[in-house]
Amino acid sequence: MKQKLLWPALLxxxxxxxxxxxxxxxxxxxxxxxxxxxxxxxxxDISVTRERNGSLRAIQEIQIFNQEExxxxxxxxFEGDRVEKGQIIARLDxxxxxxxxxxxxxxxxxxxxxxxQIKDLVAxxxxxxxxxxxxxxxxxxxxxxxxxxxxRLSYFVIRSPISGVVTHRNTEPGNIAERYSHLMTIADQQxxxxxxQLSELLLNNLQVGDEVSIQIDALRAGKSEHQTLPxxxxxxxxxxxxxxxxxxxxxxxxPVPPGARAGQFVRVTLTSQQAERLLVPFIALRxxxxxxxxxxxxxxxxxxxTPVTTGLEIGDQIEILDGLEGGELVVIRGFTNLRDxxxxxxxxxxxxxxxxxxxxxxxxx
Length: 365
Description:
Blueprint (H helix, E strand, L loop, with lengths): L1 H22 L10 E7 L1 E5 L2 E7 L1 E9 L4 E5 L7 E2 L4 E5 L2 H29 L5 H26 L2 E3 L4 E6 L6 E2 L4 E18 H4 L7 E6 H4 L8 E12 L5 E8 L11 E7 L3 E7 L4 E2 L4 E6 L5 E12 L2 E6 L6 E5 L10 E3 L14 E3 L2
């Protein structure tokens, strides 16, 4: 009988304890802070170095064409031969044209004799003024034809317009050269040039006459040391490609080193003048469909999404043209679930960040 009364009492005790546990207040859950790492955006007075590839070509290359049709009678120079300005480099057979010139000269002499006689007759009023005019016209036509034939004859002797080296010889003596046939090519290789493309953001920091470094792979083949050659900017083209936003630089290699030839592959290293640039790490840059932006941390430890306009990539840094003024704390790590106006906790000391590099070398194909 006592055991039957004990079980209900035990059950009431357990239920009472359970109710007490439920009535106890729970501990408030702590919200973990959003951790970020930052760097300070700094303005640096730096120069930017870029390496660009190109091919050498002669500063002047002339293709020689004939203006008159004829058989090639002389072509004394071959590829690699040097010619001087004004030197005869080709002759065409001009015998037919010379016979036409002889006839024109004879007609000129006859017209001159006739004119002298008719003037005497006009003075004595033995002929009309119209006859004098006719003879004068015949003489003028004969002289003009003679002059035209002499000019055409000069085209049968072809002289070099420049001093240079024959790079192409496209025909042989005995061949018939139709009018405007390409006979040969002469190049002035005293100075070799190359053209490279460069971002519009760097063009304004370069000037004609600036020195550059040039490396020619063919000259350093088999050598342990890289041979650097001096060059200079000889021309900056005024137009910018609207698609690539790049401009063209002409680089002159002078003096030409032994072994350098037109067509060789070259590497050009350009260094811009020093300029103040605001740089942040590239990993800080965020992109959306409409804009580029970075997250900056304010005095209240809240982040702001700050739109920026970017410029040059310099190593692992990116230039900021607009949006930042310098000195801002920019988030570089901790972007997961990061949003505008969110409170964060900085886990690194901005003053302890590594300094930004002062130069950059970029290799592009």
